[in-house]
Amino acid sequence: MLPRPMNDLNPFRAEGLGKLREVGSQAIWSLSSCKPGFGVDQLRDNCMDTYWQSDGQLPHLVNIQFRRKTTVQDISIYTDYKLDESYTPSRISVRAGTHFNDLQEVEVLDLNEPSGWVHIPTKSLSNGKPVRAFMLQIAVVSNHQNGRDTHIRQIKVHSPTIDKPIMVDDFGPFSTVEFSQYQYLR
Amino acid sequence: MGNHQVFQNITQHTIHLQKQSAEGLMSLFRDLGTAYLHLSQFNCKKAIECLENLPPHQHDTGWVLSLIAKAYYYLNDYRSAIKYFAEVREREPHRTQLMELYSTALWHSQKEVALSALAQDLVRLDRHCAATWCATGNCFSLQKEHETAIKFFHRAVQVDPNFAYAFTLLGHEYYTTEEMEKAMSCFRSALRVDSRHYNAWYGIGTVYYKQERYQLAEMHFKRALAINPQSAVLLCHIGVVQHAMNQTEKALHTLNSAIALDPKNPLTKFHRASIYFNIDRHADALRELEELKEMVPKESLVYFLIGKVHNKLGNTHLALMHFSWAMDLDPKGANSQIKEAIDPAVSRNQAEEASTPTTSTVSTLPFTPGDL
Description:
The structure holds two protein chains of two kinds. Chain A is mostly beta strands. Chain A is 10% helix and 40% strand.
Protein backbone atom coordinates (compact mmCIF):
# COMPACT_ATOMS: atom_id res chain seq x y z
CA MET A 1 0.00 0.00 0.00
CA LEU A 2 1.21 3.45 -0.82
CA PRO A 3 1.84 5.74 2.11
CA ARG A 4 -1.01 8.14 2.52
CA PRO A 5 -0.23 11.64 1.29
CA MET A 6 -0.10 14.18 4.02
CA ASN A 7 -3.18 16.12 2.96
CA ASP A 8 -5.31 13.04 3.57
CA LEU A 9 -4.29 13.14 7.18
CA ASN A 10 -6.61 14.80 9.64
CA PRO A 11 -5.00 18.23 10.13
CA PHE A 12 -5.27 18.00 13.89
CA ARG A 13 -3.57 14.65 13.94
CA ALA A 14 -0.88 16.02 11.62
CA GLU A 15 -0.48 18.91 14.03
CA GLY A 16 0.09 16.41 16.83
CA LEU A 17 2.73 14.70 14.73
CA GLY A 18 4.46 18.02 14.16
CA LYS A 19 3.72 18.06 10.41
CA LEU A 20 1.40 21.04 10.55
CA ARG A 21 1.09 24.12 12.69
CA GLU A 22 -1.78 26.39 13.49
CA VAL A 23 -0.70 29.79 12.16
CA GLY A 24 -3.92 31.75 12.63
CA SER A 25 -2.42 33.32 15.75
CA GLN A 26 0.21 35.02 13.57
CA ALA A 27 -2.39 36.73 11.41
CA ILE A 28 -4.58 39.77 11.72
CA TRP A 29 -8.24 38.84 11.56
CA SER A 30 -11.12 41.00 10.45
CA LEU A 31 -14.78 40.41 9.68
CA SER A 32 -17.19 42.00 7.23
CA SER A 33 -19.66 42.44 10.06
CA CYS A 34 -20.51 41.06 13.46
CA LYS A 35 -23.02 41.30 16.25
CA PRO A 36 -21.36 42.93 19.28
CA GLY A 37 -19.81 40.24 21.48
CA PHE A 38 -19.88 37.65 18.69
CA GLY A 39 -16.71 38.55 16.80
CA VAL A 40 -13.13 37.47 16.20
CA ASP A 41 -12.54 36.64 19.85
CA GLN A 42 -15.33 34.09 19.80
CA LEU A 43 -14.13 32.74 16.46
CA ARG A 44 -10.66 32.05 17.81
CA ASP A 45 -11.25 31.12 21.45
CA ASN A 46 -10.97 27.33 21.03
CA CYS A 47 -14.47 27.00 22.41
CA MET A 48 -17.27 25.35 20.46
CA ASP A 49 -20.02 26.98 22.51
CA THR A 50 -19.27 30.48 21.31
CA TYR A 51 -19.52 31.71 17.74
CA TRP A 52 -19.16 34.58 15.34
CA GLN A 53 -22.46 35.97 14.15
CA SER A 54 -22.51 38.24 11.16
CA ASP A 55 -24.77 41.26 11.00
CA GLY A 56 -25.27 42.40 7.41
CA GLN A 57 -25.62 41.43 3.80
CA LEU A 58 -24.35 38.22 2.22
CA PRO A 59 -21.60 37.35 1.45
CA HIS A 60 -20.06 37.42 4.91
CA LEU A 61 -16.31 37.68 4.89
CA VAL A 62 -13.52 36.61 7.21
CA ASN A 63 -10.22 38.25 6.30
CA ILE A 64 -6.99 36.72 7.51
CA GLN A 65 -3.91 38.83 6.83
CA PHE A 66 -0.42 37.54 7.52
CA ARG A 67 2.62 39.65 8.18
CA ARG A 68 4.64 37.57 5.77
CA LYS A 69 3.90 35.30 2.89
CA THR A 70 2.61 32.12 4.43
CA THR A 71 2.12 28.64 3.07
CA VAL A 72 -1.34 27.42 3.94
CA GLN A 73 -2.08 23.72 3.79
CA ASP A 74 -5.70 23.83 4.84
CA ILE A 75 -8.40 25.74 6.66
CA SER A 76 -10.60 24.03 9.20
CA ILE A 77 -14.04 25.41 10.00
CA TYR A 78 -16.31 24.29 12.81
CA THR A 79 -20.03 24.73 12.25
CA ASP A 80 -23.01 22.96 13.79
CA TYR A 81 -26.29 22.67 11.92
CA LYS A 82 -28.04 21.13 14.92
CA LEU A 83 -27.54 24.31 16.93
CA ASP A 84 -27.41 27.00 14.30
CA GLU A 85 -29.96 25.76 11.75
CA SER A 86 -30.56 28.50 9.18
CA TYR A 87 -27.44 30.31 10.39
CA THR A 88 -25.27 27.45 9.12
CA PRO A 89 -23.30 28.24 5.96
CA SER A 90 -24.15 26.11 2.96
CA ARG A 91 -21.59 27.42 0.49
CA ILE A 92 -18.16 28.70 1.37
CA SER A 93 -15.57 30.22 -0.92
CA VAL A 94 -11.91 30.49 0.01
CA ARG A 95 -9.81 33.17 -1.66
CA ALA A 96 -6.12 33.92 -1.46
CA GLY A 97 -3.87 36.73 -2.58
CA THR A 98 -1.54 39.47 -1.45
CA HIS A 99 -4.19 42.03 -0.47
CA PHE A 100 -7.88 42.84 -0.80
CA ASN A 101 -7.70 43.76 -4.46
CA ASP A 102 -6.09 40.71 -6.00
CA LEU A 103 -7.83 37.84 -4.24
CA GLN A 104 -8.40 34.74 -6.29
CA GLU A 105 -10.76 31.95 -5.46
CA VAL A 106 -8.90 28.75 -4.63
CA GLU A 107 -11.75 26.60 -3.35
CA VAL A 108 -15.53 26.54 -3.21
CA LEU A 109 -17.22 24.13 -0.90
CA ASP A 110 -20.86 23.15 -0.54
CA LEU A 111 -21.91 22.10 2.94
CA ASN A 112 -24.88 19.93 3.70
CA GLU A 113 -26.08 20.20 7.28
CA PRO A 114 -22.53 20.06 8.69
CA SER A 115 -21.91 19.33 12.33
CA GLY A 116 -18.28 19.46 13.39
CA TRP A 117 -15.01 20.24 11.66
CA VAL A 118 -14.83 20.76 7.92
CA HIS A 119 -11.33 20.70 6.47
CA ILE A 120 -10.74 22.67 3.30
CA PRO A 121 -7.41 21.96 1.62
CA THR A 122 -6.06 25.10 -0.02
CA LYS A 123 -4.14 24.23 -3.13
CA SER A 124 -2.83 26.72 -5.59
CA LEU A 125 -4.65 26.57 -8.93
CA SER A 126 -1.45 26.79 -10.93
CA ASN A 127 0.76 24.07 -9.44
CA GLY A 128 -1.38 22.10 -6.98
CA LYS A 129 0.93 22.84 -4.07
CA PRO A 130 -0.34 24.44 -0.85
CA VAL A 131 -1.14 28.04 -1.59
CA ARG A 132 1.29 30.75 -0.54
CA ALA A 133 -0.34 34.03 0.27
CA PHE A 134 -0.30 37.15 2.38
CA MET A 135 -4.02 37.14 2.74
CA LEU A 136 -6.84 34.65 2.93
CA GLN A 137 -10.52 35.41 2.70
CA ILE A 138 -13.25 33.04 3.69
CA ALA A 139 -16.56 34.05 2.20
CA VAL A 140 -19.89 32.62 3.29
CA VAL A 141 -21.82 32.82 0.02
CA SER A 142 -25.07 31.34 1.23
CA ASN A 143 -26.68 29.78 4.28
CA HIS A 144 -29.01 26.87 4.83
CA GLN A 145 -32.72 27.61 4.29
CA ASN A 146 -31.70 30.94 2.76
CA GLY A 147 -30.66 32.26 6.13
CA ARG A 148 -29.27 35.79 6.09
CA ASP A 149 -26.72 35.94 8.91
CA THR A 150 -24.25 33.23 9.60
CA HIS A 151 -22.67 31.45 12.54
CA ILE A 152 -19.17 30.04 12.48
CA ARG A 153 -17.86 28.63 15.72
CA GLN A 154 -14.14 28.14 15.02
CA ILE A 155 -11.67 28.67 12.18
CA LYS A 156 -8.17 27.22 12.15
CA VAL A 157 -5.44 27.81 9.58
CA HIS A 158 -2.74 25.18 9.17
CA SER A 159 0.67 25.62 7.66
CA PRO A 160 3.10 22.79 6.88
CA THR A 161 6.21 22.64 9.02
CA ILE A 162 9.59 22.41 7.37
CA ASP A 163 11.57 19.38 8.42
CA LYS A 164 14.76 21.09 9.43
CA PRO A 165 17.27 19.46 11.74
CA ILE A 166 18.11 21.25 14.96
CA MET A 167 21.38 23.05 14.38
CA VAL A 168 23.93 24.20 16.91
CA ASP A 169 23.59 27.69 15.37
CA ASP A 170 20.09 27.88 16.82
CA PHE A 171 21.42 27.58 20.35
CA GLY A 172 23.04 30.97 20.53
CA PRO A 173 26.55 32.04 21.44
CA PHE A 174 28.94 29.90 23.42
CA SER A 175 29.91 31.19 26.80
CA THR A 176 33.52 29.98 26.90
CA VAL A 177 36.52 30.74 24.72
CA GLU A 178 37.31 27.02 24.55
CA PHE A 179 34.29 26.61 22.33
CA SER A 180 33.95 29.90 20.55
CA GLN A 181 37.54 29.97 19.31
CA TYR A 182 36.79 27.04 17.05
CA GLN A 183 33.50 28.38 15.77
CA TYR A 184 34.90 30.22 12.80
CA LEU A 185 38.09 30.31 10.79
CA ARG A 186 39.55 33.66 9.98
CA MET B 1 110.77 21.26 1.90
CA GLY B 2 109.63 21.31 5.53
CA ASN B 3 107.98 24.69 5.12
CA HIS B 4 106.23 23.57 1.99
CA GLN B 5 104.88 20.52 3.76
CA VAL B 6 103.48 22.63 6.57
CA PHE B 7 101.94 25.07 4.12
CA GLN B 8 100.28 22.24 2.21
CA ASN B 9 98.93 20.79 5.41
CA ILE B 10 97.45 24.11 6.43
CA THR B 11 95.86 24.62 3.02
CA GLN B 12 94.35 21.21 3.08
CA HIS B 13 93.07 21.81 6.54
CA THR B 14 91.49 25.08 5.51
CA ILE B 15 89.90 23.54 2.47
CA HIS B 16 88.56 20.80 4.63
CA LEU B 17 87.17 23.30 7.08
CA GLN B 18 85.62 25.37 4.35
CA LYS B 19 84.05 22.33 2.82
CA GLN B 20 82.69 21.29 6.15
CA SER B 21 81.18 24.65 6.90
CA ALA B 22 79.71 24.85 3.40
CA GLU B 23 78.22 21.42 3.90
CA GLY B 24 76.89 22.46 7.26
CA LEU B 25 75.31 25.52 5.72
CA MET B 26 73.83 23.46 2.92
CA SER B 27 72.35 20.94 5.30
CA LEU B 28 70.88 23.77 7.37
CA PHE B 29 69.32 25.27 4.29
CA ARG B 30 68.06 21.89 3.27
CA ASP B 31 66.38 21.41 6.63
CA LEU B 32 64.88 24.88 6.51
CA GLY B 33 63.74 24.29 2.96
CA THR B 34 62.07 20.99 3.82
CA ALA B 35 60.29 22.58 6.74
CA TYR B 36 59.15 25.50 4.62
CA LEU B 37 57.90 23.13 1.93
CA HIS B 38 55.94 21.12 4.47
CA LEU B 39 54.39 24.29 5.84
CA SER B 40 53.47 25.53 2.38
CA GLN B 41 51.79 22.22 1.69
CA PHE B 42 49.98 22.48 5.03
CA ASN B 43 51.73 19.43 6.47
CA CYS B 44 51.82 21.46 9.63
CA LYS B 45 52.73 18.71 12.07
CA LYS B 46 55.72 17.65 9.95
CA ALA B 47 56.81 21.24 9.51
CA ILE B 48 56.79 21.76 13.25
CA GLU B 49 58.79 18.57 13.72
CA CYS B 50 61.45 19.70 11.22
CA LEU B 51 61.71 23.17 12.71
CA GLU B 52 61.95 21.88 16.26
CA ASN B 53 64.89 19.69 15.27
CA LEU B 54 67.01 22.66 14.23
CA PRO B 55 70.03 23.54 16.40
CA PRO B 56 69.09 25.97 19.19
CA HIS B 57 70.86 29.01 17.77
CA GLN B 58 68.86 28.62 14.55
CA HIS B 59 65.67 27.56 16.25
CA ASP B 60 65.56 30.62 18.48
CA THR B 61 65.35 33.12 15.65
CA GLY B 62 62.38 35.22 14.72
CA TRP B 63 61.97 33.64 11.34
CA VAL B 64 61.93 30.03 12.56
CA LEU B 65 59.80 30.76 15.59
CA SER B 66 57.25 32.65 13.53
CA LEU B 67 57.04 29.73 11.11
CA ILE B 68 56.38 27.36 13.99
CA ALA B 69 53.72 29.74 15.24
CA LYS B 70 52.18 29.85 11.78
CA ALA B 71 52.07 26.06 11.66
CA TYR B 72 50.28 25.94 15.00
CA TYR B 73 47.92 28.62 13.76
CA TYR B 74 46.97 26.52 10.74
CA LEU B 75 46.38 23.59 13.07
CA ASN B 76 43.93 25.84 14.96
CA ASP B 77 46.09 25.49 18.08
CA TYR B 78 45.86 29.17 18.91
CA ARG B 79 47.35 28.89 22.35
CA SER B 80 50.66 27.46 21.09
CA ALA B 81 50.65 29.89 18.20
CA ILE B 82 50.32 32.80 20.61
CA LYS B 83 53.11 31.40 22.78
CA TYR B 84 55.53 31.27 19.85
CA PHE B 85 54.46 34.61 18.40
CA ALA B 86 54.97 36.21 21.79
CA GLU B 87 58.49 34.82 21.83
CA VAL B 88 59.10 36.22 18.34
CA ARG B 89 58.03 39.63 19.53
CA GLU B 90 60.30 39.42 22.53
CA ARG B 91 63.32 38.55 20.40
CA GLU B 92 62.59 40.74 17.41
CA PRO B 93 60.10 43.45 18.30
CA HIS B 94 60.60 45.08 14.90
CA ARG B 95 59.32 42.07 12.96
CA THR B 96 56.05 42.73 11.15
CA GLN B 97 55.89 39.62 9.00
CA LEU B 98 53.12 37.20 9.98
CA MET B 99 51.97 39.53 12.74
CA GLU B 100 48.53 39.55 11.08
CA LEU B 101 48.28 35.86 12.02
CA TYR B 102 49.35 36.68 15.57
CA SER B 103 46.59 39.24 15.78
CA THR B 104 44.02 36.75 14.48
CA ALA B 105 45.18 34.11 16.95
CA LEU B 106 44.67 36.67 19.71
CA TRP B 107 41.28 37.50 18.23
CA HIS B 108 40.26 33.85 18.37
CA SER B 109 41.39 33.56 21.98
CA GLN B 110 39.65 36.85 22.80
CA LYS B 111 42.78 38.31 24.37
CA GLU B 112 41.75 41.94 24.08
CA VAL B 113 44.61 43.53 25.97
CA ALA B 114 47.42 41.72 24.17
CA LEU B 115 45.74 42.39 20.83
CA SER B 116 45.35 46.08 21.54
CA ALA B 117 49.00 46.33 22.63
CA LEU B 118 50.13 44.53 19.49
CA ALA B 119 48.09 46.80 17.26
CA GLN B 120 49.46 49.94 18.88
CA ASP B 121 53.05 48.70 18.69
CA LEU B 122 52.67 47.89 15.03
CA VAL B 123 51.11 51.24 14.22
CA ARG B 124 54.05 52.96 15.91
CA LEU B 125 56.46 50.72 13.99
CA ASP B 126 55.22 50.79 10.42
CA ARG B 127 52.17 52.54 9.07
CA HIS B 128 52.75 51.24 5.56
CA CYS B 129 52.47 47.58 6.40
CA ALA B 130 49.28 45.60 5.77
CA ALA B 131 49.85 43.47 8.89
CA THR B 132 49.59 46.62 11.02
CA TRP B 133 46.14 47.47 9.78
CA CYS B 134 45.01 43.85 9.91
CA ALA B 135 45.95 43.76 13.60
CA THR B 136 44.18 47.06 14.24
CA GLY B 137 41.09 45.85 12.40
CA ASN B 138 41.09 42.63 14.39
CA CYS B 139 41.38 44.65 17.56
CA PHE B 140 38.23 46.63 16.74
CA SER B 141 36.45 43.53 15.50
CA LEU B 142 36.99 41.91 18.88
CA GLN B 143 35.44 44.98 20.49
CA LYS B 144 32.40 44.43 18.23
CA GLU B 145 33.06 47.72 16.48
CA HIS B 146 32.69 46.16 13.09
CA GLU B 147 32.25 49.39 11.13
CA THR B 148 35.61 50.68 12.40
CA ALA B 149 37.20 47.31 11.77
CA ILE B 150 36.02 47.45 8.16
CA LYS B 151 37.68 50.86 7.77
CA PHE B 152 41.00 49.49 8.99
CA PHE B 153 40.85 46.39 6.84
CA HIS B 154 40.17 48.69 3.89
CA ARG B 155 43.35 50.52 4.79
CA ALA B 156 45.22 47.22 4.84
CA VAL B 157 43.97 46.47 1.34
CA GLN B 158 45.03 49.94 0.24
CA VAL B 159 48.60 49.73 1.49
CA ASP B 160 49.16 46.34 -0.08
CA PRO B 161 46.71 45.25 -2.79
CA ASN B 162 48.58 41.97 -3.20
CA PHE B 163 47.99 40.89 0.38
CA ALA B 164 45.29 38.22 0.16
CA TYR B 165 44.69 37.89 3.88
CA ALA B 166 43.56 41.51 4.23
CA PHE B 167 40.80 40.86 1.67
CA THR B 168 39.75 37.78 3.58
CA LEU B 169 39.57 39.61 6.87
CA LEU B 170 37.55 42.35 5.22
CA GLY B 171 35.24 39.67 3.86
CA HIS B 172 34.77 38.08 7.27
CA GLU B 173 33.96 41.48 8.70
CA TYR B 174 31.34 42.15 6.03
CA TYR B 175 29.98 38.71 6.80
CA THR B 176 29.48 39.64 10.46
CA THR B 177 27.68 42.82 9.44
CA GLU B 178 25.58 40.65 7.10
CA GLU B 179 26.64 42.39 3.91
CA MET B 180 26.90 39.16 1.98
CA GLU B 181 27.43 40.61 -1.49
CA LYS B 182 30.38 42.68 -0.36
CA ALA B 183 31.80 39.78 1.64
CA MET B 184 31.62 37.57 -1.41
CA SER B 185 33.47 40.03 -3.62
CA CYS B 186 36.18 40.42 -0.96
CA PHE B 187 36.73 36.67 -0.76
CA ARG B 188 36.89 36.53 -4.53
CA SER B 189 39.49 39.30 -4.58
CA ALA B 190 41.54 37.33 -2.07
CA LEU B 191 41.40 34.31 -4.34
CA ARG B 192 42.38 36.42 -7.31
CA VAL B 193 45.57 37.36 -5.46
CA ASP B 194 46.24 33.87 -4.11
CA SER B 195 44.13 30.93 -5.21
CA ARG B 196 45.66 28.72 -2.50
CA HIS B 197 44.40 31.01 0.22
CA TYR B 198 42.08 28.51 1.86
CA ASN B 199 40.49 31.00 4.27
CA ALA B 200 38.87 32.73 1.33
CA TRP B 201 37.39 29.49 -0.01
CA TYR B 202 36.12 28.89 3.48
CA GLY B 203 34.71 32.41 3.58
CA ILE B 204 32.72 31.86 0.40
CA GLY B 205 31.44 28.65 1.94
CA THR B 206 30.20 30.47 5.04
CA VAL B 207 28.36 33.01 2.90
CA TYR B 208 26.58 30.24 1.00
CA TYR B 209 25.86 28.50 4.27
CA LYS B 210 24.22 31.63 5.62
CA GLN B 211 22.12 31.82 2.47
CA GLU B 212 21.12 28.20 3.06
CA ARG B 213 22.64 27.14 -0.25
CA TYR B 214 24.17 24.15 1.40
CA GLN B 215 25.45 22.31 -1.63
CA LEU B 216 27.51 25.27 -2.76
CA ALA B 217 28.70 25.77 0.79
CA GLU B 218 29.86 22.18 1.03
CA MET B 219 31.66 22.45 -2.29
CA HIS B 220 33.62 25.51 -1.19
CA PHE B 221 34.44 24.09 2.22
CA LYS B 222 35.78 21.00 0.50
CA ARG B 223 37.83 23.19 -1.76
CA ALA B 224 39.38 24.76 1.32
CA LEU B 225 39.91 21.36 2.86
CA ALA B 226 41.75 20.16 -0.22
CA ILE B 227 44.28 22.92 0.42
CA ASN B 228 44.52 22.49 4.18
CA PRO B 229 43.51 18.87 4.78
CA GLN B 230 44.48 18.82 8.45
CA SER B 231 42.08 21.47 9.67
CA ALA B 232 39.60 19.90 12.06
CA VAL B 233 37.58 23.12 12.06
CA LEU B 234 37.04 22.90 8.31
CA LEU B 235 35.97 19.27 8.60
CA CYS B 236 33.61 20.27 11.34
CA HIS B 237 32.00 22.88 9.08
CA ILE B 238 31.57 20.30 6.34
CA GLY B 239 29.91 18.00 8.84
CA VAL B 240 27.52 20.75 9.88
CA VAL B 241 26.57 21.47 6.27
CA GLN B 242 25.94 17.80 5.60
CA HIS B 243 23.78 17.68 8.68
CA ALA B 244 21.84 20.66 7.38
CA MET B 245 21.23 18.76 4.15
CA ASN B 246 19.83 15.86 6.19
CA GLN B 247 22.77 13.62 5.29
CA THR B 248 23.17 12.52 8.85
CA GLU B 249 25.33 9.46 8.26
CA LYS B 250 27.77 11.41 6.15
CA ALA B 251 27.85 14.21 8.69
CA LEU B 252 28.64 11.80 11.51
CA HIS B 253 31.38 10.25 9.45
CA THR B 254 32.92 13.64 8.71
CA LEU B 255 32.74 14.68 12.35
CA ASN B 256 34.32 11.41 13.42
CA SER B 257 37.31 12.06 11.22
CA ALA B 258 37.49 15.63 12.50
CA ILE B 259 37.57 14.35 16.06
CA ALA B 260 40.25 11.82 15.15
CA LEU B 261 42.29 14.68 13.70
CA ASP B 262 41.98 16.92 16.74
CA PRO B 263 40.57 15.14 19.80
CA LYS B 264 40.98 18.26 21.90
CA ASN B 265 38.49 20.34 19.89
CA PRO B 266 35.34 20.45 22.01
CA LEU B 267 33.17 22.09 19.37
CA THR B 268 33.34 19.11 17.03
CA LYS B 269 32.24 16.82 19.82
CA PHE B 270 29.43 19.20 20.65
CA HIS B 271 28.21 19.08 17.05
CA ARG B 272 28.34 15.31 17.16
CA ALA B 273 26.34 15.30 20.38
CA SER B 274 23.70 17.55 18.84
CA ILE B 275 23.39 15.22 15.84
CA TYR B 276 23.02 12.24 18.16
CA PHE B 277 20.30 14.18 19.93
CA ASN B 278 18.64 14.88 16.59
CA ILE B 279 18.50 11.27 15.51
CA ASP B 280 17.32 10.11 18.94
CA ARG B 281 20.54 8.37 19.96
CA HIS B 282 20.14 9.83 23.41
CA ALA B 283 22.56 7.53 25.22
CA ASP B 284 25.34 8.43 22.79
CA ALA B 285 24.52 12.10 23.09
CA LEU B 286 24.67 11.94 26.87
CA ARG B 287 27.97 10.08 26.84
CA GLU B 288 29.47 12.65 24.48
CA LEU B 289 28.18 15.52 26.58
CA GLU B 290 29.50 14.01 29.79
CA GLU B 291 32.94 13.89 28.18
CA LEU B 292 32.54 17.50 27.16
CA LYS B 293 31.60 18.43 30.68
CA GLU B 294 34.95 17.03 31.81
CA MET B 295 36.80 18.93 29.09
CA VAL B 296 35.12 22.31 29.45
CA PRO B 297 33.27 22.39 32.77
CA LYS B 298 32.08 25.96 32.34
CA GLU B 299 30.32 25.89 28.98
CA SER B 300 26.69 26.78 29.47
CA LEU B 301 25.47 25.25 26.22
CA VAL B 302 26.77 21.79 27.18
CA TYR B 303 24.46 21.83 30.18
CA PHE B 304 21.69 23.25 28.05
CA LEU B 305 21.94 20.36 25.59
CA ILE B 306 22.15 17.79 28.40
CA GLY B 307 18.97 19.34 29.74
CA LYS B 308 17.30 19.04 26.36
CA VAL B 309 18.26 15.37 26.11
CA HIS B 310 16.88 14.64 29.57
CA ASN B 311 13.77 16.57 28.70
CA LYS B 312 13.21 14.35 25.71
CA LEU B 313 13.85 11.26 27.79
CA GLY B 314 11.18 12.45 30.18
CA ASN B 315 13.56 13.08 33.10
CA THR B 316 12.02 16.44 33.85
CA HIS B 317 13.84 16.78 37.12
CA LEU B 318 17.31 16.27 35.62
CA ALA B 319 16.39 18.48 32.68
CA LEU B 320 15.43 21.37 34.91
CA MET B 321 18.56 20.91 36.99
CA HIS B 322 20.77 21.19 33.91
CA PHE B 323 18.82 24.11 32.50
CA SER B 324 19.32 26.04 35.69
CA TRP B 325 23.03 25.22 35.69
CA ALA B 326 23.22 26.46 32.13
CA MET B 327 21.50 29.64 33.20
CA ASP B 328 23.92 30.11 36.11
CA LEU B 329 26.92 29.74 33.82
CA ASP B 330 25.66 32.24 31.28
CA PRO B 331 23.31 34.62 33.05
CA LYS B 332 23.02 37.21 30.30
CA GLY B 333 23.84 35.47 27.02
CA ALA B 334 21.56 32.63 26.09
CA ASN B 335 19.16 33.44 28.85
CA SER B 336 15.96 33.68 26.85
CA GLN B 337 16.32 30.37 25.06
CA ILE B 338 17.06 28.56 28.31
CA LYS B 339 13.99 30.11 29.88
CA GLU B 340 12.01 29.04 26.86
CA ALA B 341 13.29 25.51 27.31
CA ILE B 342 12.38 25.52 30.96
CA ASP B 343 8.88 26.86 30.47
CA PRO B 344 7.31 24.23 28.21
CA ALA B 345 9.03 21.60 30.35
CA VAL B 346 7.19 22.89 33.37
CA SER B 347 3.83 23.32 31.70
CA ARG B 348 3.99 19.94 30.02
CA ASN B 349 4.83 18.28 33.29
CA GLN B 350 1.82 19.84 34.92
CA ALA B 351 -0.51 18.92 32.10
CA GLU B 352 1.05 15.47 31.81
CA GLU B 353 0.70 15.73 28.08
CA ALA B 354 3.51 13.47 26.99
CA SER B 355 2.49 13.53 23.34
CA THR B 356 2.47 17.30 22.80
CA PRO B 357 5.11 18.25 20.25
CA THR B 358 7.83 20.50 21.58
CA THR B 359 7.28 23.12 18.89
CA SER B 360 3.64 23.66 19.61
CA THR B 361 2.80 26.90 21.33
CA VAL B 362 -0.94 26.67 20.83
CA SER B 363 -2.79 25.77 23.99
CA THR B 364 -4.34 22.34 23.98
CA LEU B 365 -7.89 22.25 22.80
CA PRO B 366 -10.61 21.51 25.33
CA PHE B 367 -11.69 18.47 23.34
CA THR B 368 -9.63 15.86 21.56
CA PRO B 369 -9.54 16.70 17.84
CA GLY B 370 -7.47 13.60 17.19
CA ASP B 371 -10.60 11.53 17.61
CA LEU B 372 -12.36 13.15 14.72
